[in-house]
Amino acid sequence: MKIKRFAWGLLLLVLHAAWFLLLARFPDFSLFIVFVPLAAVFNLTRHARVRNTYISIFVIFWLALFQYESVRGFLLNDRWKLNAPKTRFLFPPAGWIMFYTVEPEAGYFEVIGVKGRQTHVIDPHHIFRVRTIGYDNIHRGILGTAYNPNNPYVAADFCRYLNHRFPEFDEFLFMGYFYPNIIEKPFDRRQRIIYRCDEKHVRF
């Protein structure tokens, strides 16, 4: 039993030494190499305590790296001009940027299918045929890419796709909902039909 533990300990030591060597030899790919031990342990061991320990180390490391990139992007380089080194392949400094500037204007879009006198709001997940992959992009307003005031062909292409995807509807309404100042007046919502289209025409 002691020999087995010694052998395992020696193997782990060698593997960690090889890991550090890779980090030193290929610094440009350190962001990927650094996760190799976590992935290996998580997939190869069944010991819950070992797995939990490695996951905890990973979380602590990632939080530290995450905070460093945010501090580097917003303070060290931008304000204090220190030219701190950037972590390769980790961009942009997310996190803080999501709360850095909150504009008062807000809005979103919907597609409404019309059949006779009945209307039906079409779920964007059904439009783009996604379940989990791309789900976050829908919440970030990917539907807004179907409207480009400088390029009417975008609407025409999108309408052709809608008619192909949902042939049961007679026409479609592309609706826009806008909040002029959602911070001070969260219930002041404006709405209008951006364009409507059927199988042959697009009307703005």
Written overview of the protein:
By secondary structure, the protein is α+β, with helices and mostly antiparallel strands. It folds into 2 domains: 2-76, no CATH class; 104-203, no CATH class. Helices cover 46% and strands 17% of the residues. The chain has 8 helices and 5 strands, in the order H-H-H-H-H-E-E-H-H-H-E-E-E. The chain has helices spanning 2-25, 30-33, 36-44, 48-76, 97-100, 124-128, 135-139, 152-165; strands at 106-115, 118-122, 171-179, 190-197, 202-203. A 5-stranded antiparallel β-sheet has the order 2-1-3-4-5. Strand 1 (106-115) and strand 2 form a beta hairpin. Helix 3 (36-44) runs antiparallel to helix 4 (48-76). The protein is elongated, with a radius of gyration of 26 Å. The mean pLDDT is 82.
Offer a concise description of the structure.
Helix content is 46%, strand content 17%.
Number of strands: 5
Number of helices: 8
Mean pLDDT: 82
- Strand content range: 15-25%
Between the first and last Cα atoms, what is the distance in angstroms? 78 Å
> If you compute it from the alpha carbons, what radius of gyration comes out, rounded to the nearest whole angstrom?
26 Å
Q: Secondary structure elements and their pairing?
A:
Elements (H helix, E strand, L loop, with lengths): L1 H24 L4 H4 L2 H9 L3 H29 L20 H4 L5 E10 L2 E5 L1 H5 L6 H5 L12 H14 L5 E9 L10 E8 L4 E2 L1
Antiparallel strand pairs: 1-2, 1-3, 3-4, 4-5
Helix pairs in contact: 3-4
Q: Which features characterize this protein?
A:
204 residues, alpha+beta, 2 domains, five-stranded antiparallel beta sheet
